[in-house]
Amino acid sequence: MAHVYVSDVIDAPAEKVWAFTRDYNGHGDWHPIIEKSEIEEGRPSDQVGCVRAFTVSDGGFLRERLIAFSDTDRTFTYTILESPMPIENYVATWRVTPITEGDRSFVEWWADFDVSPEDEADIRERVGRNTFAAGIRAIADRVG
């Protein structure tokens, strides 16, 4: 099983960062590679079980199900249902933690998934740098 983990500090309070990112479908508004995203069946985007369907800038289409959500812990977890990437059993978590000194936020985004050895380096780059790190920097630019 592969593991990708990215963390960073955002110069904004955790409450502000969480308020901006808690919308499971909000990535279409801030992530640089998301072209269009919608929640299927009109369900609320913070309801466990909802599915977001979206396209990315390279034309890929993905569907992801929200499997855990907590305003108290400022975290959500999701799994990929459909993806053009050669992966299986993908589960990812987003978490925002307050940094009390300086009123900043420590953000983490990680995923575990199965991938063949020949695809692992490419998928780690796509998930880690192109998705997670790029997304965190885009959030920092918007809320910081």
Automatic annotation (TrEMBL):
Q: Name one Pfam family in it.
A: Polyketide_cyc2
Instruction: Name the source's superkingdom.
Output: Bacteria
Q: What is the protein's name according to its record?
A: SRPBCC family protein
